[in-house]
Structure formats: structure tokens, C-alpha cells
């Protein structure tokens, strides 16, 4: 099975952490959408996070009515939601394993988010395109590399490709943008 995961178009978050906050996407670069659509091809199924920015991205790619899966929502940052990026706490040089377990007040950890995303990913039975968030991409990568997936940068409107054979996952590409 081939799994394509596309991070949504740039979030119109006004310099604030969006996470579970439902903000719109900047869908103005029609040429980038056309190039990415050509790169994606025709997956057997398209599933999005219920977030508006993901659904807008799907529509711009020509997938007007994809299935939404609540398990693909971005990490819930709790008390950090809506804070300007420069106001977020500095967690210092936490080891990746501790960072993956860290929960902002009233929020969830990367491991919490990854557990629900993994459930959604493991339920897939055919070649699929997920349109979701940077956290969802990192959760999928964690199936191969563990919490080290937190070290990956994931650009807006970038594609990550994984393959599953039985229970084994491999990575074909990460953070690919349309030329």
C-alpha cells in the first residue's frame, strides 16, 4: 500500500499557533496546486483532517468531497493555542523522547496525537492520500523512525510518501514540493 500525506496549504494563522484552531488556508497559488495535483495522480481514496485548511486544500486539488477523519487533526496544544509564536515557551534542549511526551497545559503530547493518527493510518487498506497537518506527517514518519520524526521539517503543501508491506513501513520521500 502506498500512503501519500500532503500537508495543507499555508495556514492563515496571523503568526499564531493554530493546532486545533480552525483557520483558513492561503489557496492563492493556483500554479502550485496544479503542479502538486499532477504529482499526486489519482489515489484510490482521499481522506482529510476535518480542519477547514485541509478541506480547502482538498478542494483546490480537485477533490471536492473527501472523507474526513477526526483522528487526523493536528496536535491539541491546549493553553498554547492562539499564542503568537514568539510567546511560546522555550522547552530548551529536551531530548526527543521527552519532547514527544511533553503535554502543554490542557493539551496533548506528540505521542498522544500520534497514537490516534496511527490508528487511522493502520485502518487504511488501499493506496491513499491524506491531507492533514505537519504533526500528522511526523506521526506517520514515526511509524518508521520513532520520535525522531519530530526533527523533520514539513513545509506547507509538501508531500510525504510511505509504503506499507504487511506491518512494515518504509519512507520513499519527505517534504517534496511541486517544482
Biggest β-sheet: strands ordered side by side in the sheet: 3-2-4-1-5-6
Tally of structural domains: 1
What would you say the CATH architecture is? 3-Layer(aba) Sandwich
User: Low-confidence spans: pLDDT under 50, at least 5 residues?
Assistant: none
Alpha-carbon distance between the termini? 25 Å
Q: In percent, how much strand structure appears in the residues?
A: 15-25%
The radius of gyration is: 16 Å
**What is the CATH topology assignment?**
Rossmann fold
Structural class, from secondary structure content? alpha/beta
Helix and strand element order: EHEHEHHEHEE
What general form does the structure show? globular
Strand count, sense and closure of the main sheet? 6 strands, mixed
What does this structure look like?
By secondary structure, the protein is α/β, with parallel strands linked by helices. It has one domain (2-11, 19-80, 92-176): Phosphoglycerate mutase-like (Rossmann fold). Helix content is 28%, strand content 18%. It is built from five helices and six strands, in the order βαβαβααβαββ. The protein has a six-stranded mixed beta sheet. Strand 5 and strand 6 form a beta hairpin. Helix 4 (110-122) crosses helix 5. It is globular.
Amino acid at each position: 500500500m502506498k500512503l501519500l500525506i500532503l500537508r495543507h496549504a499555508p495556514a492563515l494563522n496571523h503568526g499564531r499557533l493554530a493546532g486545533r484552531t480552525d483557520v483558513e488556508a492561503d489557496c492563492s497559488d493556483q500554479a502550485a496546486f496544479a503542479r502538486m495535483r499532477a504529482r499526486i495522480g489519482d489515489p484510490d481514496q482521499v481522506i482529510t483532517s476535518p480542519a477547514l485548511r485541509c478541506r480547502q486544500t482538498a478542494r483546490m486539488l480537485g477533490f471536492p468531497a473527501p472523507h474526513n477523519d477526526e483522528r487526523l487533526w493536528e496536535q491539541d496544544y491546549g493553553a498554547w493555542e492562539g499564542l503568537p509564536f514568539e510567546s511560546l515557551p522555550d522547552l530548551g534542549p529536551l531530548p526527543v523522547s521527552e519532547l514527544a511526551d511533553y503535554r502543554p497545559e490542557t493539551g496533548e503530547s506528540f505521542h498522544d496525537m500520534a497514537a490516534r493518527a496511527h490508528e487511522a493510518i493502520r485502518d487504511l487498506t488501499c493506496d491513499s492520500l491524506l491531507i492533514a497537518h505537519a504533526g500528522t506527517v511526523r506521526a506517520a514518519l514515526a511509524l518508521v523512525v520513532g520520535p525522531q520524526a519530530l526533527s523533520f521539517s514539513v513545509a506547507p503543501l509538501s508531500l510525504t510518501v510511505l509504503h506499507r508491506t504487511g506491518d512494515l513501513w518504509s519512507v520513499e520521500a519527505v517534504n517534496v514540493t511541486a517544482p
